[in-house]
Amino acid sequence: TSAGAMRVEQFVDAIDQVLDRKLEPLKTLVVASYNNQHWAPASSTSSVRQPFRCEVFSAYNAVKDDSSATWCVVTGMWWPAMAATGVPYVRTAHIIGRSVPESDWVDMQLGCSRDVLENVVPMMASVEVAFDTHRVCVLPTMDDATGVESFVIYILDPALKDELVYADFSGRYNKGLPQQWTAPPPTVQERAGLGEVQATTLTFGQLDRQRLVFRGEQLPAKRCFTAHALWAVGRAKQLRGWDTKGLEITADHIGWQSPTMEAQLRKTAIWAAMQQQLHLEADSGSGGASVETEADG
Fold first, then answer.
1. pLDDT > 90? residue 41
2. Per-residue pLDDT at 13 exceeds 80
């Protein structure tokens, strides 16, 4: 529609305020994410993707011994394995989605396929939808006092904060299945930083500025979450007009493995976009919260 075309044009103009016009690869990537707002996750029912799904859950230690529940790293909770036949609570969510062009995925330096453990985390389905539509992002951080690295959740959409995570899931997927539906158990569950909270009463707002909770040694790549956050925060500020509370993405977030690799990748689209944003902010004298990180392990 003409209205839709106008919004895309406005979005491109907004991106041009942040990115140099020569950075066509990244601009193409960001516009693609705008046009395809829900990046398709790996199918939980596909016989092709099922082995990789099992590999992800195993690597992240995200399945109970009796297979009755799966762990979501964002909510920090166990959820029933299935709400109904073919409707899992927790999915293998891709950080860099399938709509992103292959050429831009190659810049991540994680191989030819997006189906790698560093680009996928176990995530509750309704959280995954919010993440894919850029209403939520995650940034790597390091505690200056303890030196402990972690990943911090940011709820970008103010309207999302009062919504219940479970209610969103139930409203989205519990259609015509009331007799088969399995709700989360009523027992109180705990999440680091939140104290006691039940799965059915958890809001998105309670997750804001909380850390991802991992149950094993497997971790996602910082560069994947940083690239996603670059697009999400850019859209929040430039297109949607959301107050991001001083949140900024800096080159330190990207977390490539070594100074040598950073030098090799300095001219890639994403790295260059980071540098361009920093120069613009420095020229304008704007300030904001930034988070320091070390490189990926």
1. no
2. no
> What radius of gyration do the chain's Cα atoms show?
19
C-alpha–C-alpha distance, residues 162 and 177, integer Å: 26
Q: Average per-residue pLDDT in the chain?
A: 76
Altogether, the residues listed in the chain come to a count of 297
pTM flag (> 0.85)? no
- CB-CB contact of 220 with 118 (8 Å): yes
According to DSSP, the residues that pair with 152 across neighbouring strands are: 139, 211
Segment 76-101 mean pLDDT: 90
Is the pLDDT at 257 greater than 60? The verdict is: no
Helix (H) or strand (E) holding 191: strand 189-191
Contacts with 126 (C-beta within 8 Å, 6 or more apart), sequence order: 165, 166, 168, 169, 172
3-state SS assignment for residue 19: coil
205-210 contacts at long range (C-beta below 8 A, 24 or more positions apart) = 205/155, 205/160, 205/161, 205/162, 207/74, 207/75, 207/127, 207/136, 207/153, 207/155, 207/165, 208/153, 208/154, 208/155, 208/161, 209/152, 209/153, 209/154, 210/76, 210/152, 210/153
| Number of Cβ atoms within 10 Å of the Cβ of 262 | 15
Q: For residues 16 and 21, what is the distance between their CA atoms, to the nearest angstrom?
A: 6
Q: Which of 63-67, 177-181, 211-215, 264-268 has the lowest mean pLDDT?
A: 264-268
Question: Which pLDDT score is estimated for 238?
Answer: 81
Distance, C-alpha 122 to centroid of its chain? 11
Q: What per-residue confidence (pLDDT) applies to 102?
A: 77
Alpha-carbon span 249 to 242, nearest angstrom: 16
Contacts (Cβ under 8 Å, ≥6 apart) of 206: 194, 197
